[in-house]
Amino acid sequence: MDVYDWLANIPVADIEDACKVIEVSFQHGSRKEFFKNPYLQHFEKGEYVTVEGVNGFDVGEVSLTGELVRLQLKKKGVNEFNPEMKKILRRSNERDIESFKFNKEREPSVQAKSREFALKHNLQMKISEVEIQADGKKATFYYTADDRVDFRELIKQYATEFKLKVEMRQIGIRQEAAKVGGIGSCGRELCCSTWMNEFKSVSTAAARYQNLSINQTKLSGLCGRLKCCLNFELDTYLDALQYFPDNADTLETAKGRAILIKKDIFKNLMWYAVEGSNKHYPLTIQRVKEIQQLNAQGNKPQELEAVEIVSSKHKEVELQFVDVVGQISLRSLEKADRRRKHHHHQENRNATTTNKKKDRGNDNDNKQPSSQQQQQQQHRHSFKGNNRRNKN
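Above: the chain sequence. Below: its structure as tokens.
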């Protein structure tokens, strides 16, 4: 069978340039590092690889390969040709995986004991997570603390108790939530524990720009800080707010001063309320600009003309209720129940009597002989009488 390679003349990117560095994730993606691929091996995403560690090796999961790694290197300012960058040793074999799983199973017990030791030393710190290297030679203790902590004696006790090289690393409250993980109010896994690597500051101004009520309970995440997702759509809101007029917090009318309540960027409306009135007036952006021009000239409109808002929702049918208080009593309900029970009892009684009559009728039909049976019986009696006469 003849085979023709249709892609022979299509230039392909050089493999050496595309696969020099690979991104490897540890601890379910909470920590990611870049490693050189000296042997230019082809790795798939999600594949376990053995990499260089501290005086040994570690096992991680491939998270990015190819040109996407270059974009991440450029974004984080990492030099691709850095000679100090660690290398990928090999694909993880069974022995590496067994050692990796064994040390992962040790982490909860080590974390529990490390917290006990910290309490004995009266240190104001919390051990959030313990990460043990795959070869079992090093352990990293992640902790949170409000103030500076002197844990020199604690490190000595850790090294003596666990027979490991100890590294203490302080993290923030958001990083702690990312390492612990959880489910957010949206019903999905936390963004910080899945794909987010950088934690930008979030302020209440982001909620105000998006017309959200300043409720600390609803706006806070599992870490106790403002939710990171408040920044996700902030740029879109800021771009839309550019088309709204500035210095439009108040408008002067003949009925009084109108105060801005909120800005609706989806419908391009601005809601105002006149002082001393509970009625809200939705105005278009163009109408607000016209009123601003009138106020600048010293004129005031007679009143604010609200824009008619077309709703896409179906009109709900109003249910009308009748006041029946005093018309229905418990005695009347009890009488109705008795009537129903008596009626059902009478129907069942009639049904049983009709069934009995049918059964009796069937029995009588079975007992009464048919015409053919009567003729046969008469024929037998006549035959017996003739035989008796012949004998005589």
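Residues 15-92 form one domain.
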